[in-house]
Amino acid sequence: MTERPLRVVVIGAGMAGILAGIKLREAGIEDFVIYEKADRVGGTWRENTYPGLTCDTPSHHYTYTFERNPDWSSYLPPGPEIQAYFEGTCHKYGIDTFIRFNAEIGSAEFRDGRWQLQLKDGQRDSADVVIAATGVLHHPSTPAIEGIENFKGTLFHSSRWDHSVPLAGKRIGVIGTGSTGVQIVSALAGTAALIEHYVRTPQWIMPVDNTPYSAEQRRAFREDPAALALAMNTEEYLANVNSYTQVITRENLEAAEFWKATCLQNLEASVTDPELRERLRPDHEPLCKRLIFSPDYYRAIQHPQAALVTAGIERIEADGIRTADGELHKLDIIVLATGFKSDQFMRPMQITGTNGVTLEGLWAERPKAYLAVSMPDFPNFFMLNGPNGPVGNFPLIDIAEHQWHYIAQLLDKLRSGECTEICATAEALASFEERRIAAAKTTVWFVGGCKSWYLDAHGIPSSWPWDYDRFVAEMRQPQWRDFAGVGAAHAEVVG
Ligand code: NAP
Questions:
Q1: Confidence (pTM)
Q2: Which of 12, 46, 367, 452 has a Cα-to-Cα distance from 268 of 20 to 30 A?
């Protein structure tokens, strides 16, 4: 059988887009282009440059499985190192030459068996297959705080850090206590005249040892695969993240007790002032929000030049933040560590599939995709880290590799000529959504007594609601009965 040559467009040159490029080349597909709206690769690691930026996943597990990095400086690697890793890997695998930078896709429409793409700069392209690798948390969420536009000082979102603004001697307010806010406060306490942390919902904080790797350790990782394997301790790592996921799915109450007790012990042992300790004590179930791993937040918030503000924010005024107790907190800089709109994905791109079906139409209620990868009426359009994809606190890099393994099998159907078009059926998506939503309502995200970015506009958790093993099993091989295919060798359903 002659192989059908495929032209592929990948959207986004972050971690997932680079992965797609590497895997396409590995499969012998060289006719592809990666469109990237920015001027560099790296996605979230390019956009986030705030002080203290680190990954909250052990460094040796935060790599592609086929490109380990023995040179991480510490257990939780700092952002610039991760950015350098992606740039280096992209170069090493010869992906740079496939990327078109400063090239933003405005729309994509499936016409006459091909995707027709329109770039924002007016150029056009067409492809047999589109891979959307556009990321999850990248549209900043700016809170509608009264008077925000009246602030005379400098105000920016954490993912748009203005490095031209000096911090020394300044009074800085950080709003938000997700991983981002916690990392910023930890990094800046003591370097600014004052750092005030505005905390609406105290978080559970897990202690973590982030001692830098020594030069000898890194040499050993480089020279001896066994030393790296020992440091990765994959079995223990998997047991850990699996136990985390089982707390989310509420299958393992013992594990829930372990995480809670460890965080509580961290709070009790680290914060000396009983009044401050109470103000830092969370009132929801652990893991209801994404757990924070921090080696130094409690130390930072007790620094003489740091202050915790738990009185609600009334409004922002020209000189600072007015809290609900009437106090005006005078500030020079306000940082919005207020998270991201987690329901946007590849929007605002306009995407139109067959039968005039649009992405906005399909996603009118909420973003959805069969197994996070494929959508009915959007043939040959596949997603990495699409809706409902993230699994617990497993790094998205691992999730994307499993998803690629699945997508590669769909590409094989197209290459072999078994079908010319392939996507999940409407029935498969509906059934998946029914099961996913039912499971989501039993997770700690739903019943744990908190709000978080995991919840969609209807209050339903939007991440993968089962455990990691189930995700891995689902990604192993497509259930072909859930796919519709079009093509000479096919009737309607891929067999
Ligand atoms: P986030 O977890 O969504 O946290 C947003 C914070 O902003 C919350 O504390 C929220 O308070 C607060 N907030 C929002 N609006 C507010 C308002 N009007 N007034 C007061 N507070 C307000 O955002 P994030 O910290 O940027 O993290 C986003 C995701 O990225 C998380 O999953 C995080 O773990 C992940 N992340 C990962 C890494 C990594 O190392 N891999 C690094 C950074 C971030 P409430 O809780 O009260 O709503």
A1: 0.95
A2: 452
Residue 462 CB partners (closer than 8 Å, separation 6+): 342, 343, 366, 367, 387, 388, 440, 454, 455, 456
Q: How many CA atoms lie within 13 A of 249 on its CB side?
A: 23
Pick from 177, 280, 289 the residue to mutate for probing ligand 1's pocket: most ligand atoms within 8 Å of its CB: 177
* Sheet strand arrangement including 171-175: 154-157, 333-336, 171-175, 194-198, 306-309
Nearest to 404 by CA among 476, 345, 467, 344: 476
Q: Are strands 105-111 and 114-119 parallel, antiparallel or unpaired?
A: antiparallel
What atom of ligand 1 comes closest to residue 450's alpha carbon?
46
Q: Is the CB of 137 under 6 A from ligand 1?
A: yes
177 lines ligand 1 (CB under 6 A): yes
- What is the Å distance from ligand 1's center to 452 Cα? 8
Phi/psi for 204 (5° steps) reads -75, 130
Assess whether the C-beta atom of 470 lies below 6 angstroms from ligand 1: no
Ligand 1 in reach of 58 Cβ (< 6 A): no
Ligand 1: does its nearest atom lie under 6 Å from the Cβ of 451?
yes
Domains and CATH numbers, the chain: 8-39+101-139+341-484 (3.50.50.60), 148-336 (3.50.50.60)
pLDDT per position in the chain (495 positions), as tens? Answer: 578 999 999 999 999 999 999 999 999 999 999 999 999 999 999 999 999 999 988 999 999 999 999 999 999 999 999 999 999 999 999 999 999 999 999 999 999 999 999 999 999 999 999 999 998 888 999 999 999 999 999 999 999 999 999 999 999 999 999 999 999 999 999 999 999 999 999 999 999 999 899 999 999 999 999 999 999 998 898 888 888 899 999 998 899 999 999 999 999 999 999 999 999 999 999 899 999 999 999 999 999 999 999 999 999 999 999 999 999 999 999 999 999 988 888 889 999 999 999 999 999 999 999 999 999 999 999 999 999 988 887 889 999 999 999 999 999 999 999 999 999 999 999 999 999 999 999 999 999 989 988 999 999 999 999 999 999 999 999 999 999 987 744 444 454
Q: From the CA of 267, how far away is ligand 1's center (Å)?
A: 20
